[in-house]
UniProtKB/TrEMBL annotation:
This is Putative HNH nuclease YajD. GO terms for molecular function: endonuclease activity; hydrolase activity; nucleic acid binding; zinc ion binding. Belongs to the HNH nuclease family. InterPro entries: HNH, HNH_nuc. PANTHER family: HNH NUCLEASE YAJD-RELATED. Keywords: Endonuclease, Hydrolase, Nuclease. Residues 96-118 have a biased composition (Basic and acidic residues). It comes from Candidatus Sedimenticola endophacoides. Residues 1-21, 87-118 are annotated as: Disordered. Residues 23-78 form the HNH nuclease domain. GO terms for cellular component: cytosol.
Length: 118
């Protein structure tokens, strides 16, 4: 019993360390737990609602200094990506803003048609 418990604890520690290497954990350590758009503050109880947004929309660009990240709540993050899609398809989306954006590099549905064929 003790050996099994030790294994579970050791595995949990390894998994925690692995997660902390991820960009979300690093961003949460670098920045205050506040949405960069609406200013909503977060605590441990609702931290799952705070997301990491890649400023250049490239999920593979994760510099260790966090310069490509900003923390956004779920709602502001969704709005940011909706504005990008609106701008791409001619809906404006960036009215009142001088910021220029490149297209998003991540498309979670890119391979959906192939997966559905299988």
């Amino acid at each position: 019993m003790s050996d099994k418990l030790d294994q579970v604890v050791a595995r949990a520690r390894r998994e925690r360390e692995e997660r902390e290497k991820g960009y979300r954990e690093r961003a949460l350590k670098l920045y205050p737990w506040v949405c960069g758009r609406c200013g909503r503050e977060f605590t441990r109880s609702n931290l799952r609602e705070l997301t990491v947004h890649h400023r250049d929309h490239n999920h593979d660009h994760n510099p260790s200094d966090g310069s490509n990240w900003e923390l956004l709540c779920l709602y502001c993050h969704d709005n940011e990506h909706s504005r990008l899609l609106d701008a791409r398809y001619g809906g404006g989306g960036e009215s009142g803003s001088d910021r220029k954006r490149e297209g998003a590099t991540h498309n979670p549905f890119r391979d959906l048609a192939d997966m559905l064929k299988k």
